[in-house]
From TrEMBL:
<feature type="region of interest" description="Disordered">
    <location>
        <begin position="161"/>
        <end position="187"/>
    </location>
</feature>
<feature type="signal peptide">
    <location>
        <begin position="1"/>
        <end position="32"/>
    </location>
</feature>
<keyword id="KW-0732">Signal</keyword>
<dbReference type="Pfam" id="PF01569">
    <property type="entry name" value="PAP2"/>
</dbReference>
<protein>
    <submittedName>
        <fullName>Vanadium-dependent haloperoxidase</fullName>
        <ecNumber>1.11.1.-</ecNumber>
    </submittedName>
</protein>
<dbReference type="InterPro" id="IPR000326">
    <property type="entry name" value="PAP2/HPO"/>
</dbReference>
<dbReference type="InterPro" id="IPR036938">
    <property type="entry name" value="PAP2/HPO_sf"/>
</dbReference>
<dbReference type="GO" id="GO:0004601">
    <property type="term" value="F:peroxidase activity"/>
</dbReference>
<keyword id="KW-0560">Oxidoreductase</keyword>
<feature type="domain" description="Phosphatidic acid phosphatase type 2/haloperoxidase">
    <location>
        <begin position="294"/>
        <end position="416"/>
    </location>
</feature>
<dbReference type="InterPro" id="IPR052559">
    <property type="entry name" value="V-haloperoxidase"/>
</dbReference>
<keyword id="KW-0575">Peroxidase</keyword>
Length: 429
């Protein structure tokens, strides 16, 4: 067996620790373009297994924010895609690299090496647990040339990916610009912290310029549009709202964590369609990389407009110069506001990217799924990706964390960036 450089004891597989458990019925088979080589069919899909390990490392252990974890997942899944694509004979354009491979190289070994090495680069403090999972993965593969070759491919893909991201602009200490004038962003309760301020300066994975997607200005504070948007979220998004329906409240809570979409729906769609390793690697890379590049463009717009969130705007509405808005110093939203500028909505950008990538891969919008959320304690059902996206855009208003114009323009930005990502990466050669 090929040994990794760092040893560790076996801790066992962690079960999926996602915030939702998803049950799917999808009457769709993989497209002809996807039905080529790439390894075993799920269950037993190494790409899904290591995506679960990545979730454990990124979210459960490191407890990265949704913004930060998007970069981490894109790094891991991008390397896994390049490794599996290389073993399969490079039927698709690589994302970062196309390592040399030989016929018979183990796909499972390549996946394990690529995911392990990128995760270890991201989280060196987790070496013991990551090495244990790596040991277990290689123990299930017969020793010999196939294993050695797969490991070499995976390590090469990981090395190329981590080198490409070594100076990519990631800086957790970067602060947001804070203003004091009406309309300017200021830190939000309860933590009053800065999160994701580095994202506008992050190097995109695919698109050449994340600033090439202009977002028009938010409404002027003296306009009727501003008053209409502020009063809508004030009325519907308050923690104590009496006009928000029970179903709207449930949806606002259900949609509160954007990772719900990426982890549960994407992974379970791959499982429901019994995608092989190459198909799964390509699907996950499309989703994670598209969402990362979309968020970079989204956060560039956030930093540029630096607009205040409802949780600070509503108590200070008396300063906006608009007679149609009234301040409420005791107003609080249903859900906690993310610590970043308001415009456009990051969740809308993110979810639109995920749903657009899923639609591109499967070739249709009508995918039926139902998901359970422990946060709301309920299951919600959808018959299309578009229906789910439309509800998300409303849910951010019902949660009290975004104005309607922020959600709408986040959605438009996702629709602009994601096709550019997918048109320039992951295409058949």
């Amino acid at each position: 067996m090929t040994q990794r450089p760092l040893a560790g004891s076996f801790r066992g597989l962690r079960r999926i620790a996602a915030l939702t458990a998803l049950a799917l019925t999808v009457p769709l088979t993989a497209t002809t373009a996807e039905a080529h080589s790439g390894g075993e069919i799920a269950p037993g899909n190494a790409v899904i297994t290591w995506n679960i390990h990545a979730q454990t490392a990124i979210y459960d252990t490191a407890k990265q924010s949704p913004t930060t974890s998007t970069r981490s997942f894109a790094i891991v899944q991008g390397a896994v895609y390049d490794a599996v694509n290389a073993v399969a004979g490079r039927p698709y354009e690589p994302l970062v690299s196309a390592p040399r491979s030989r016929p018979g190289d183990s796909t499972a070994a390549a996946v394990a090496a690529a995911a392990h090495d990128t995760l270890l680069w991201l989280f060196p403090a987790q070496a013991e647990s990551l090495n244990a999972r790596y040991d277990e993965a290689l123990a299930a593969i017969p020793d010999g040339r196939a294993e050695d070759g797969g490991v070499a491919v995976g390590r090469a893909a990981a090395a190329a990916m981590t080198e490409s991201r070594r100076d990519d602009g990631f800086d957790p200490t970067a602060p947001w610009t804070v203003g004091t004038e009406p309309g300017e962003y200021r830190p939000t309760p309860p933590g009053y912290v800065n999160v994701g301020a580095w994202m506008p300066n992050l190097t995109p994975f695919v698109i050449p310029d994340a600033g090439a997607y202009p977002v028009k200005p938010p409404p002027a504070l003296t306009s009727a549009a501003w008053a209409r948007n502020l009063n809508e979220v004030k009325r519907l998004g308050a923690a104590t709202s009496t006009v928000r329906t029970k179903d709207q409240t449930e949806a606002a809570i259900w949609w509160d964590d954007p990772q719900m979409v990426e982890w549960s729906i994407t992974r379970q769609l791959a499982d429901a369609h019994r995608l092989n390793n190459l198909q799964t690697a390509r699907l996950l890379a499309m989703v994670f990389v598209a969402s990362a590049d979309t968020l970079i463009a989204c956060y560039k717009a956030k930093a540029y407009w630096n607009f205040w969130r409802p949780v600070t705007a509503i108590p200070l509405a008396g300063t906006d110069g608009n007679a149609a808005t009234d301040p409420d110093p005791d107003w609080t939203p249903l859900r906690v506001t993310a610590p970043s500028p308001e415009y456009p909505s990051g969740h809308a950008c993110f979810t639109t990217a995920v749903m657009t990538a899923l639609k591109s891969f499967f070739g249709r919008d009508h995918l039926t799924f139902a998901a359970y959320s422990p946060a709301s304690g309920t299951t919600r059902h959808y018959d299309s990706l578009q229906a789910a996206t439309a509800e998300l855009l409303e849910a951010r208003i019902w949660a009290g964390v975004h104005y309607r114009f922020a959600s709408e323009h986040g959605h438009r930005l996702g629709l602009a960036v994601t096709p550019d990502v997918l048109n320039h990466a992951f295409q058949r050669r």
